[in-house]
Design brief:
The structure is a single chain. The protein is α/β, with parallel strands linked by helices. It has a domain of 134 residues: 3-Layer(aba) Sandwich (Rossmann fold), CATH 3.40.50. Helices cover 27% and strands 27% of the residues. The protein contains five helices and nine strands, in the order H-E-H-E-H-E-E-E-H-E-E-E-E-H. The strands form two sheets. The protein has a six-stranded mixed β-sheet with strand order 4-3-2-5-6-7, with helices on both faces. It has a three-stranded antiparallel β-sheet with strand order 1-9-8. It is globular. The chain starts with a helix and ends with a helix. It binds inosinic acid (IMP) and magnesium ion. Inosinic acid binds next to strand 5, helix 4 and strand 8. The site of magnesium ion has 3 residues, from loops.
C-alpha cells in the first residue's frame, strides 16, 4: 500500500520541485537555497532503483554512466540494485567552466560490449537534451537490445532535442543547480543536497 511518503515522492516527480529551504550557514554566501534535501534524494533514489530492478529483472544489464556529474547519484543508485550488472562510463563535457552550453567534448569512450544487451544510461540532469541525444545516437550504433535512460533531474522547459528519460528523480524549474555531483566550474559536486546558486555568483564570473 502506498504510504503518504510515497505519494509525496510521486508528486515531487510529477510536479516541479520549486520550494527552496535555507542552506547551511557554510554555503549561505554562494547558495540561494536548498532545492532538494539529502533525505528527499535518498528516498527518491531508492524508489528509482526499485523501478529499475523490476524493469530489468532477468536481463543482462550494462549501466553506462556519464562522467562527472553522476558520481554521487550513480553510487547511491547502484548500491540499491541487486541485479547482476556491469558498469562502464562515458566521459562527456558540455559545460566546461560555466553555465553556458558549449561543444560536446568526448573525454572517455565506452569500453564494455553492449551489443544485444540491455543498457541503462545514467545522467545527472536532462537540460536541453543535447548531451543525451549525442550519447544515445552513439549508443544506438552499438546495437544494444534496448536502451533506457535514468536521470536524477530534468528541466522540462529547456528542451531543444527530442529526448526523454524513462526514470526521472525530480523535475525542476529553470534554475542553475549544484551539488550531489552537479558542478559550477567543477565546484560544489561534494554538496550532499541539490542547491540553487545565487545568479549573481555565476553571472559575474
Ligand atoms: P544538456 O546537454 O543541455 O541536456 O545538458 C546536460 C548537461 O549539462 C548535464 O549533464 C550537466 O552536466 C549540465 N547541466 C545542465 N544544467 C545544469 C545545472 O543546472 N547545473 C549543473 N550542470 C548542469
Ligand atoms: Mg554532466
Amino acid at each position: 500500500m502506498a504510504t503518504q511518503r510515497d505519494r509525496m515522492d510521486e508528486m515531487i516527480q510529477g510536479k516541479q520541485v520549486s520550494h527552496c529551504s535555507r542552506p547551511p550557514a557554510r554555503w549561505r554566501h554562494e547558495l540561494k537555497g536548498v532545492l532538494i534535501r539529502q533525505m528527499q534524494i535518498a528516498r527518491r533514489v531508492r524508489k528509482l532503483a526499485d523501478e529499475i530492478e523490476r524493469d530489468f529483472a532477468g536481463r543482462d544489464l550494462v549501466v553506462v554512466s556519464l562522467l562527472n556529474g553522476t558520481v554521487m547519484f550513480l553510487a547511491d543508485l547502484i548500491r540499491h540494485l541487486s541485479l547482476p550488472m556491469r558498469l562502464d562510463f562515458i566521459g562527456v563535457s558540455s559545460y566546461r567552466d560555466g553555465t553556458q552550453s558549449r561543444e560536446l567534448l568526448l573525454t572517455k569512450e565506452l569500453r564494455l560490449e553492449v551489443r544485444g544487451r540491455d543498457v541503462l544510461v545514467v545522467d545527472d540532469i536532462l537540460d536541453t537534451g543535447k548531451t543525451l541525444k549525442c550519447v544515445l545516437d552513439k549508443m544506438r550504433e552499438l546495437k544494444p537490445r534496448r536502451i533506457k535512460v535514468c536521470v536524477l533531474l530534468e528541466k522540462k522547459d529547456r528542451r531543444v532535442e527530442k529526448v526523454r528519460a524513462d526514470y526521472v528523480g525530480f523535475s525542476i524549474p529553470d534554475l542553475f543547480v549544484v551539488g550531489y555531483g552537479l558542478d559550477f566550474a567543477e565546484r560544489y559536486r561534494n554538496l550532499p543536497f541539490v542547491g540553487v546558486l545565487h545568479p549573481h555568483y555565476y553571472q559575474s564570473s
